[in-house]
TrEMBL record:
Residues 84-173 form the GS beta-grasp domain. It holds the Pfam family GSIII_N. Residues 178-615 form the GS catalytic domain. Coiled coil: none annotated. GO terms for biological process: glutamine biosynthetic process. It comes from Polaribacter atrinae. This is Glutamine synthetase. GO terms for molecular function: glutamine synthetase activity. Belongs to the glutamine synthetase family.
């Protein structure tokens, strides 16, 4: 009997929820560990405060003397809260976060010591980061990399460390992280959206992208996970037979949160409050033991940092509660996977949501302008958007039945579709006074009412308009939001730039009024981008066929999808918008391919190991018991045993059959693995995708069949029913 599984089950059954002390109101806790505006006002001189504010609002440089002042104040503030160390906190291209802690402590002449932290340490550091992926940008012997302070994301204290959000770049200037391109994309959207805003409001001076993510995850008992090397090493189950009861009854969704999970959530939320992460919503998700947390939306750079931080904090807090958090997009076959919806919009300096209709026809025209330009951008760059969410783990979700498909399309709902259909018929060139009035009163004038009762929601769409924002639903739960957000903001920035050029041309060359010119261009955009709009069921086969007819791409594998990251179209887009250079793009593509290959490689190794060293030996033990039993029956009953032991004999044959198949498949898979030495880059990733990954399903099938045949008491791996229904 396999002791580890049963010990784990016993341990799990004995667990009690950890009591979380909640003495203080959330509003009191909020931001206590963040060097935010409030703390800065208290600790900084007026000049230093203004300098930091200017850097945040207008991207101005902070000079060295001021940086020294900020550093000293930051240290005083951090020490008053018990911090002893500081770190530059950054997001290398591994997709995770990185930190290296240094003490504030410094000794003087070897005898005295003091706490020290100066501007130089705040502003720039050189981490020994030679083993972070750099895709060939940073030749280890030549160019080094450094981290540099990002004042737009406030420093915070986690445990006893002051964490300073930073970018990570090579000395030659190339970005080695996910934050730098995001900041550049946010700069681009600010520039081009502000320019377009000026059509509607002469005083417009700033536009920020906003992001509200929704993080889905599974909470599985730690002991049960320890009995499975697949979850430990790959974040998902590589095998396991479906339980008799799965999610058919939908009885978990929005149900009462189980006690232990609840106590984890309370603990997590308190920590989030201290860190200034404005989490607001928590609920059960569709699958058993699946949950979601979501914050109030924030400026996109901050929201991205907060999501990365949240994922770190969740891992740490889950340990206290004896849980393992699974962020993988598809930890359990046949059970809903996890995503991370990215709710995105644009907001002006005075807080006007540009994707929310207003009270006047002019405001509605502004809304339509941003709305239609976004749709056009998504249409024109659908391949790139698809590439931005491609990964080895999201591959198990995209195109699977309950997740958004691998085809990018935009849902806007019946009523807004009707508005666009009407706008499509606007006269070319100058509009008659009658037509103008009609447009203002009957078409764009009606938008706010339409949206108020717009209840039609389409859960199957990968990119849906939901009343006052777009919701990019195909982003993976494990993803760093910076990557899709960099792409989305860059493509919309580029689209708005084009729009402005075209509208200005009509005003100057054709002598059209501003609103006439806007209507004229929007009309063309509506016509051009029709193929991307789809309000039907995106999960159906019919859509796959229809999308193909419309010329939309449908890349089911990650290596194929990733190609768009380095297409000529992409390179010229990113270079024009000054978001990434060709070198930076190619580096990321290399890293993505390599990471894909490595992940599939690890899965292959772990699966082969489990199949051969756990599943097959267990099946043999059980088969031996059956053989022993059959032999005994024969001894006692003679020839009659064939009837009496019919079931046993059948089982013996079945087990042999599955064992033979598993062995043959593993041998074939190993043979394919040997070939990879010849390949690198795309070919390597494609080989893993096309030649190695397909074995997983077949090997799994035979293992899962054995799971249903072998005595439950012998089975060494915790089963789906135990992983999913133990609370
Ligand atoms: P759901 O999509 O689950 O029905 P909501 O519509 O309430 O839920 O919003 C979901 C998420 O959208 C929340 O995380 C919220 O912060 C975010 N959100 C709302 N408005 C905006 C906005 N203007 N920009 C970005 N995110 C937003
Ligand atoms: Mg949502």
């Amino acid at each position: 009997m396999s002791r580890i599984r049963f010990n784990a089950l016993q341990e799990t059954l004995r667990r009690k929820p950890i009591k979380v002390i909640q003495n203080e109101k959330r509003s009191t806790l909020f931001g206590q560990n963040v060097f935010n505006k409030y703390a800065m006002q208290q600790y900084l001189t007026r000049a230093a405060y203004e300098s930091v504010m200017n850097a945040i609002d207008h991207g101005t440089k902070i000079d060295r003397k001021i940086a020294d002042q900020v550093a000293v104040s930051m240290k005083d503030w951090a020490m008053s809260k018990g911090a002893t160390h500081y770190t530059h906190w950054f997001q290398p291209l591994t997709g995770a976060t990185a930190e290296k802690h240094d003490a504030f402590f410094e000794s003087i002449n070897g005898s005295l010591a003091m706490e020290k932290f100066d501007g130089e340490q705040l502003v720039q550091q050189e981490p020994d980061a030679s083993s972070f992926p750099n895709g060939g940008i940073r030749n280890m012997f030549e160019a080094r990399g450094y981290t540099a302070w990002d004042p737009t994301s406030p420093a915070f204290i986690y445990e006893t460390t002051l964490c300073i959000p930073t970018i990570f770049v090579a000395y030659t200037g190339e970005a080695l992280d996910n934050k730098t391109p995001l900041l550049r994309a946010l700069q681009a959207i600010d520039t081009h959206a502000t320019a377009v805003c000026k059509y509607f409001d002469k005083n417009a001076n700033k536009v920020s992208a906003t992001l509200g993510w929704e993080q889905e995850f599974f909470l599985i008992d730690e002991a049960l996970v320890l009995a499975r090397q697949d979850i430990q090493f790959t974040g998902r189950t590589l095998l396991g037979h479906s339980p008799a009861k799965g999610q058919q009854l939908d009885d978990h969704y929005f149900g009462t949160i189980p006690a232990r999970a609840m106590s984890f959530m309370q603990d997590l939320e308190q920590e989030c409050m201290l860190l200034g992460i404005p989490v607001k919503t928590r609920h059960n998700e569709v699958a058993p033991n699946q949950f979601e947390v979501a914050p109030i939306f924030e400026e996109a750079n901050l929201a991205v940092d907060h999501n990365s931080l949240l994922m770190d904090v969740m891992q740490k807090i889950s340990r206290r509660h004896k849980f393992k958090v699974l962020f993988h997009e598809k930890p359990f076959a046949g059970i809903n996977g996890s995503g991370k919806h990215n709710n995105w919009s644009l907001s002006t300096g005075n807080g006007t949501n540009l994707l929310s209709p207003g009270k006047t026809p002019m405001k509605n025209l502004q809304f339509l302008t941003f709305f239609i330009n976004t749709i056009k951008a998504v249409y024109h760059y659908e391949e790139l958007l698809r590439a931005s969410i491609a990964s080895a783990s999201n591959e198990y979700r995209l195109g699977a039945n309950e997740a958004p498909p691998a085809i990018i399309s935009v849902f806007i709902g019946r009523q807004l579709s009707a508005v666009l259909d009407e706008l499509e018929n606007v006269t070319k060139g100058k509009l008659s006074p009658q037509e103008k009035t009609d447009l203002k009163l009957n078409i764009i004038g009606k938008i706010p009412e339409i949206l108020l009762d717009n209840t039609d929601r389409n859960r199957t769409s990968p990119f849906a308009f939901t009343g006052n924002k777009f919701e990019f639903r195909a982003v993976g739960s494990l993803a760093n939001c910076a990557i899709p957000m960099t792409v989305l903001n860059t493509i919309v920035a580029k689209q708005l730039k084009e729009f402005k050029i075209e509208v200005d041309a009509l005003i100057e060359e054709k002598d059209l009024k501003k609103d006439e010119a806007v209507f004229n261009i929007l009309r063309e955009y509506i016509k051009d981008s029709k193929a991307i709009r789809f309000d039907g069921d995106s999960y159906g086969e019919a859509w796959e066929k229809e999308a193909k007819k419309r010329g939309l791409t449908n890349y089911k594998t990650t290596p194929e999808a990733l190609k768009a990251k380095v297409s000529e179209k992409t390179i010229s887009l990113f270079e024009e918008m000054e978001v990434m250079s060709k070198v930076e793009l190619e580096a990321r593509y290399e890293i993505d391919l390599e990471s894909y290959a490595k992940k599939v490689q690890i899965e292959g190794r772990v699966l082969a190991d489990i199949a051969r060293n756990q599943v097959v030996p267990t099946a043999i033990i059980y088969q031996n018991t059956l053989l022993e039993n059959t032999k005994n029956l024969k001894e006692i009953f003679g020839d009659e045993y064939k009837i009496i032991a019919k079931e046993q004999l059948e089982l013996i044959m079945l087990i042999s059959n599955h064992i033979t198949k598993i062995n043959a498949l593993v041998i074939k898979m190993e043979a394919e693995k040997v070939k990879v030495n010849k390949y690198s880059g795309f070919k390597l990733a494609a080989h893993y995708s096309n030649k190695i990954k397909p074995f997983f399903t077949d090997i799994r099938y035979h293992c899962d069949q054995l799971e249903t045949l072998v005595d439950d008491n012998l089975w060494p791996l915790t089963k789906y029913r135990e992983l999913l229904f133990t609370k």
